[in-house]
């Protein structure tokens, strides 16, 4: 996003439009309030959260956070989720949800208790292994104490019954994210956090999992999320929509749209294609670009390797408070501010490789998502007759706003996670590598990256090591200057 008071990036019309119109960043500046970002509170000492008993290896992990350098209390330590099975019902008139989340996980330490993340919803019951467990809620932490302690390595199943009126996170540094409840439906989406606004979750990309989601809504409403569509059943004026995500997914990539939607389905190369467009949006200029999703994905596949996921498509929502588009896995969510430029589609599709399949280990490495997706957007623009990537690079190098040289794309800080520098200078970092190693080795690096870290997590340090290994070229000093130097690096 572009916070107020900071000049927009001065670039060619193409890249300016692309950056402003896209893409995991809002269409225009939004107010920045003084509120606390979700899960951004200081890390608690493990003992502070102990409801009873002790943690066998308390020093080894934090039960209340995964230790992300920017959001220490995001996610929870001590276990690894394999799958979420969510059954939720949404009452559109009351803007309220009731749900049961059944989570299968493996203990990665001996546990007498463990945490899940849940925002502004009330838990009424918890079982672990089918046996009632004690629980309490402290801010956004749900703390569960099973009847019997869990041994390291044990697989366990926890079921949480909950209800309430889902909320947005306070509009903080990145605008409003979370659960957007409206008079005629709802949208849940947001990066870096949104999932815990509608179900209990280990809310950090470091713990990816598969999902099965059943959403019950009043008949006549659509309920769309990620994954392969399953059966749809109607009973007593309510319809349940079933979805399954069989490939591990980061929690922020699970998005939800409930409302009146025009749903179009087809197949592409044997995989389901599903577009859902809010029925209030008619003849929107973005729709022809949206329908190019398979074509754009096929083009990107020639550059980055096989398309990673089970589905293609996209969801266009009519929710003015959602000022971003998001690379929701297998089915990106778009706000309706698109101009008709296919760049935003290319950007969110590129994230399917960079961000969704290969996910960050920590949010500090966000350039691995946004720099790469922006670079793909530039490649698509060149491919379709726009400025060449080289022209955009040269133009940006000479004329870009000073903020991209002062903000470090490799360590932008939690309050400027989506700074222009992360997008543009991140992309320029890749172009600097390309100029140094040549096209053939550069695209081999990208394909090796998506292959070796497919469906997993990776870090900037791992990228540097891989790029040097694949290219046979010393790149560390170059990449360090482009990612971490608080001034314009030498021209490559
Ligand atoms: Zn993005």
From TrEMBL:
SUPFAM superfamilies: Leukotriene A4 hydrolase N-terminal domain, Metalloproteases ('zincins'), catalytic domain. It holds the Pfam family Peptidase_M1_N. Residues 83-253 form the Aminopeptidase N-like N-terminal domain. Residues 28-40 have a biased composition (Pro residues). Keywords: Aminopeptidase, Hydrolase, Metal-binding, Metalloprotease, Protease, Signal, Zinc. Its cofactor is Zn(2+). The keyword Ion transport does not apply. GO terms for biological process: proteolysis. InterPro entries: Aminopeptidase_N-like_N, Aminopeptidase_N-like_N_sf, Peptidase_M1, Peptidase_M1_aminopeptidases, Peptidase_M1_dom, Peptidase_M4/M1_CTD_sf. Belongs to the peptidase M1 family. This is Aminopeptidase N.
